[in-house]
Amino acid sequence: MPPSTEALQAIWLTVELATLTTLVLLVIATPIAWWLSGTRSRWRAPVSALVTLPLVLPPTVLGFYLLVAMGPDGLLGRLTLALGWGTLPFTFTGLLVGSIIFSLPFAVLPIQHAFEAIGPRPMEVAATLRARPLDAFFSVALPLARPGLITAAILSFAHTVGEFGVVLMIGGNIPGKTRVVSTQIYGHVEAMEYSQAHWLAGGMVLLSFVVLLALSLMKRRLGRVMP
Amino acid sequence: MKRGLLGVWIAGCLVGSAGSLAQAAEVSVAVAANFTAPMQKIAAAFEQDTGHKALLTFGSTGKFYAQIKSGAPFEVLLAADDETPARLEREGLGAPGMRFTYAIGRLVLWSRQPTLVDDQGDVLQTGRFERLALADPKLAPYGAAAVEVLNGLGLLKSLAPKFVQGGNIAQTHQYVATGNAELGFVALSQVFADGKLTRGSAWTVPARLHTPIRQDAVVLNAGKDKPAALAFMAYLRNDKARAIIRSFGYEL
User: Fold this and answer.
1) Could you say which of B131, B138, B175 has the minimum Cβ distance to residue A191?
2) What range defines the domain where residue A107 resides?
3) Residue segments in chain B with a per-residue pLDDT below the cut of 70
4) Exposure check for chain A: N or C terminus, fewer CB within 10 A?
């Protein structure tokens, strides 16, 4: 059976969402991970717990809270309304925000561990060589933490592709806008259209396998930079 | 001495639990999401009157069908449609000849805003809203009925860009209840209790505008020899249960 346009649309949307989520997460998670790995602040433990929270919450619960928070009564919703953007649920941006929050621990934890593994020593050496902190961060800490960054990217991407509860809840299942592969499969299964579901699920497994394989090969090659 | 007392106590417990087991049993019931509120009331009354306990699982009929096909141990299914129970019976998964319609669902156009929806549903013509929530018509009978109504009013094409679809009727209700969609088609039972609307504004869609949403109950193979399951089916048909079902806006 050839893929329907609906299926292709959902696949494309999934790839787009996962890629954007991964990119944004790398930018957000790196400073959080850096701060968590080095700080002695009393806020460290609460912030660390907060970052890990999405791992614990069932996706539909998280999705419901996001729906409330981004709705017209929620803090986030009031903010976006005041800015004239409307509310975020049922939009691609809303899905992106949801995915970022949902996958945050998958990005922060590997990067944080990579930074912790480096230890303070290389940065101290860089400082004695008169490198400014920001300079040293980009030319010493970040390259050394590359395996952690790649792991974070793999996990974020994979987790977003497989994400389902949050997407279904805040997405509204709109074709071409918020209907991704996982919600499409859900729809087929619920409608007892098992053959379409098999087709898509098989495609998703294959696609995910190829992406993960490529990333992990890349990690092995780039990982050799590690001392 | 001490040991003797303990023995008596254990024996007492065993006798006690065996006694209660003999009369009171459990029946596991899969219940369509739209029937959640009335079901909880009926289950409480059922336990009080018969001593049997109904273990309730709420979800979508499609998911229950898939689970039952894969051997889920439900003994009774209260579906959101009449097709799924018939199909289960045809496929030999339901006990033959025991199906009946336990409720006929009513569709309502509902908003949590107190004045948005008028009692004629004219708000649909004005289009003065951003988002209209409905259940996925492929998955939920209430969604299919909503599409039928809009189609009949000639508004399906013009309003389709404003659709947001819930995976089931419970999720659709959440979209409207949280204000993320200004209005939506939900089950009357979700916004109706004790004979009146619980909040917001609504248009109860006239039953002639869509095919009746007949919700059927079926005894599954796991339950066909269980007295508690049969007692539950019988209880669902008695006047007390029917009064509860009607008080949530279902027809019978």
Assistant:
1) B138
2) 5-223
3) 1-23
4) C
Q: Which amino acid is at A167?
A: V
What tokens does A46 get?
């609460």
Domain count, chain A: 1
Q: Which chain A residue lies closest to B134 (C-alpha atoms)? A: A172
| Beta strand segments in chain B, E | 26-32, 53-59, 76-78, 100-105, 107-111, 132-135, 163-166, 183-187, 192-193, 196-197, 201-204, 213-219
Do the chains contact at A191 and B60, CB–CB below 8 Å?
Answer: no
Give contacts of A191 with chain B, Cβ < 8 Å: 62, 138-139
Question: In this predicted structure, what is the pLDDT of residue B23?
Answer: 63
Give the amino acid at B165. Answer: Q
Total-model pTM = 0.77
What is the architecture of the domain spanning B25-104+213-247? 3-Layer(aba) Sandwich (3.40)
Mean pLDDT of A28-37: 96
CATH 3.40.190.10 fits B107-204, yes or no: yes
